[in-house]
Amino acid sequence: MTTMFFQRAYLALRSSVLAALAFLLIQPAMAQTPGDSYPQRQIKIIVPFPPGGSTDTLARVLAQNMQDDWGQTVIVENRPGASTIVGSQAAAKAEPDGYTLIVVVGNHATNPALHSKLPYDTLKDFEPISYLGHVPIVVYANPAFPAANLKDLVAITKKQPVNFGSAGLGSTTHLAAESFKIEANIDMSHIVYRGGTPAMTDAIAGQIPMTWATVGQALQQYRAGQLKPLGIAWPTRYAAVPEIPTFKEQGFDVVGSEWYALLAPAGTPKPIIAKLNAEVRKITARKDLGDKLQAVELSSSSPEELQTFIKNEIDKWTPLINKLGLKAD
Question: Could you give the CA distance from residue 153 to residue 170 in angstroms, rounded to a whole number?
Fold first, then answer.
């Protein structure tokens, strides 16, 4: 009787110990989030432009730093076409697992007004990760153009027709120029180019008197004396070109820039978004990346701040696009 009692007690105790051990073993797995083990394989960053531009350069700097930090391969895939719509659609339809990301720019917020229909919803089909940075817009003129500043430009437009180029219809550079026209109460004719480089080339050659471009798009040509700046559309002097006076200094309340942001497909788990956001904050805080980025000033944000920013950009530019009757399709 006593022996049987002790056998039963031993078996009960062993069962309790085994159950406790099993519980302890599964606790870490139960507590893990998708972000704990992320990333476990190759990450792809879509760039909705051809190789070589500022967006591509920024994405490659981001990819290299992520790869160095995490020990996983991070590649850049260029998916140009249809004013970034091709690449954006690919990102929106990708598996929401954190292994497909996209770097978007200002026309991510202007495309909804410029196109009658998009194959994705600009706000609902993407998960914001972080703001990445910005580069202001400059009025670059041919050296032979008689204007030395914006007030000269206004005076000239009142006497004769003036044309300007930009990165394309509805681009941030085009819309900054249109904002200036309204602010200064002048008229200038927009010559539509398929990108900022052809417009810059024609401005250098004197085919058009000026082009509205980001600091980086024509920085080398400006420093080589092939173009002259009339003003920069930024609230304060910009670190990369502190000698260029702002629009505000010259009496015009116009601010415009190309901006960059990192997004994921909607539905990407929040812990993965949080891990990506922390990584972007770490990378953008590094001081040794500036020389590679064509005058882009790096920055970061929370996902919520980025979502609000994109919505505000849509609200900012849609009325102007509608007022001008701009359509890209």
Answer: 22
230/146 Cα distance (integer angstroms): 11
Query: Alpha-carbon distance 307 to 131, whole Å?
Result: 9
Cis peptide before 39 (omega within 30 of 0): yes
pLDDT tens, 119-149? 999 999 999 999 999 999 999 999 999 999 9
H/E stretch holding 245 reads none
- On the CB side of 242, CA atoms within 13 Å amount to 1
Rounded Cα–Cα distance for residues 57 and 48 (Å): 12
Q: Does the structure show a pLDDT above 70 at 8?
A: no
Look at residues 301, 311, 308 and name the one whose alpha carbon lies nearest to residue 130.
301
Distance CA 259, CA 131 (A): 8
Pairing label, strands 126-141, 228-232: antiparallel
d(CA 260, CA 208): 28
pTM, two decimal places = 0.87
- Distance (Å) of CA 255 to CA 237, 286, 325: 12, 26, 22
Residues 6 or more apart whose CB falls under 8 angstroms from that of 56 comprise 47, 49, 50, 76, 78
- The three-class DSSP label of residue 97 is coil
